[in-house]
Amino acid sequence: MRDAKSLVATIYLDTGRVEFDPNFKFKCLDDCAKCCVELDIPLRDEDITRIEELGYSTWEFVDYEKMFYRGDRFVGYALKKRPFDGACPFLREDGKCAIYPHRPLACRLYPFLLVKHGNVLEIYVRNVECPGIGHEEGRPVDEAFIEEYFGEVVEEYRGKMKSHGAMVGQRA
């Protein structure tokens, strides 16, 4: 069964225009760490490289026995869980992430889900028990929020659109 989700913003990648639900608000709570314990996190090659550059060995954080697929395409391995409590290996005793600025993309995106349809990128919030969803001090998923939380992904999609457009133009 798929996660239930609600649309909170739409980005038009070709123009940069953003439509968002001003009633939806989100704030990641520093002391929560619920997602660091409950989630299985897929690691992209870029995530692994970024963490290795911090001095960690892959055997410390990659679970080579758990794999993620999108359809029949291999997406990546999972982030290892600590054997004594099932939490992320980078979760410190104070409930903070030891690699926060370098954390995997899946961690950066949670509790959001991004779905691309042509030149439109839709941002959904998963209907999960995350205390940051609807938080009174939260922010709407507006242009500034999107740049901060999803900027890397949006730029990656825009780059792919431009290179694909250039390739199509070369064929003409």
Percent of residues in β-strands: 15-25%
Please give the number of β-strands.
Answer: 7
What is the terminal-to-terminal distance?
A: 43 Å
The secondary-structure class comes to: alpha+beta
Largest sheet, spatial ordering of strands: 2-1-7-6
Task: Note poorly predicted spans.
Answer: 166-172
The global form is: globular
Helix content: 25-40%
What profile does the largest beta sheet have? 4 strands, antiparallel
Number of domains: 2
Rg (CA only):
17 Å
User: What is the overall pLDDT average?
Assistant: 88
Overall description:
The chain is an alpha+beta fold. Helix content is 30%, strand content 24%. The chain has two domains: 88 residues, no CATH class; 66 residues, no CATH class. The strands form two sheets. It has a four-stranded antiparallel sheet with strand order 2-1-7-6, with no helix packed on it. β6 and β7 form a beta hairpin.
Features:
172 residues, 30% helix, 24% strand, globular
Q: TL;DR of this structure?
A:
The protein has five helices and seven strands, in the order E-E-H-E-H-H-E-E-H-E-E-H. The strands form two sheets. A four-stranded antiparallel β-sheet has the order 2-1-7-6, with no helix packed on it. Strands 3-5-4 form a three-stranded antiparallel β-sheet. The protein has helices spanning 34-38, 45-52, 58-61, 105-109, 143-171; strands at 5-12, 18-20, 42-43, 62-70, 73-79, 112-117, 120-126.
